[in-house]
Amino acid sequence: MADQTAQFTPRFRTDIYPFIEPSKYRGSLRNKVTIITGAAGAIGQGLAESFAVAGATLVLTYNRTPPPPELEERCLRFGAADVSFIKCDIAELGGCEALVKETLELHGRADILINNAGANGLGPLHDQAPQDFIKEIAVNFHGPYYLMRLLLTYFRQQRSGCVLNIASRAGTVAIPYSTGYCSSKAALINLTACAQKELDIDGLGEEVHMYSLHPGGIKSAMTLKKYSPESVSTLPPQAQSKFVNALDIYDDSPYLNGMVCVALATGVGKEVLRGKYFDVGQDLEDVLGQREALRQNPDLYGLHTSFLGGLKNGGVPEGGYRKEEWGKEFPGF
Predict the structure, then answer these.
(1) From the centroid of its chain, how far is CA 194?
(2) I want to staple 62 with a disulfide (CB 3.0 to 4.6 A). Which of 12, 40, 48, 231 is the partner?
(3) pLDDT tens digit sequence for 288-309
(4) Which is nearest to 112 in space by CA: 205, 187, 210?
(5) At what angle do helices 254-265 and 42-53 cross, to 10 degrees?
(6) DSSP characters for 169-215?
(7) Contact 37/164 with Cβ under 8 angstroms?
């Protein structure tokens, strides 16, 4: 018998592929009330149109820049049950409370939360105004936390719900001059994992499932501004060359992320991917085809670190704990 834990490399994707073909998911989320933050940008619009194909009832939020007028028409034409726009600053608890209240007043329920709004600056930590750093953390982490905290009460009561947190590869690596973004996205990935573990312990993991995702390299307005020549020119001279061609890797379709999120919202991957961090560049079908490998290695698709000697983050180290043979008094005692 073949080793069922053997892994093969999932295919790498940059656009829609057969497993997430929109026609396969048409109407699959009919009337599911879906809140999408940051709906005005390229990633947000891709999410809105993808969930429209699935028949969702869309609640699209924006802060300073309203979505283009034609977005509503497109979403309705693609199959959305309803589309509404709500202005909301998710960095503020009051704004999140008002968003949830208005959504429940409009539709009587909420089913899917997509935390997509983001902030992403470029510059040295020691030069960044503290209020700008705090704002990045608030948009990328506090806002998603607020909305998760507010909606999890309802998801638990109705014993159904899905949270999709748009994170980033930046949350898994250390990128200089992107401290606020990397830190907040790492926190978001771990927030997702911790919250899912609590749901699993309470016996709700099959009904309420959540994911964090890298949405691919998309030339959004935020990314174009971050890596513009004007922005890069503000960096120390010795650092500028590292970012001159940063936009070269941003060439993915926003619908890749949108349709992967639709697939996950239907529950297709909740058995092995709930609470995990998923990179939409990997073929979802290929990953789900290796369920046993995912079960055998809980570190896959999660944040973890490695130590010399194999020291583990949890449990008793190999060989057990031992008292150090110091044999001397500590100076001053």
Answers:
(1) 14
(2) 40
(3) 999 999 999 999 999 988 888 8
(4) 210
(5) 50
(6) GGGTS--TT-HHHHHHHHHHHHHHHHHHHHHHHTT-TTTEEEEEEE-
(7) no
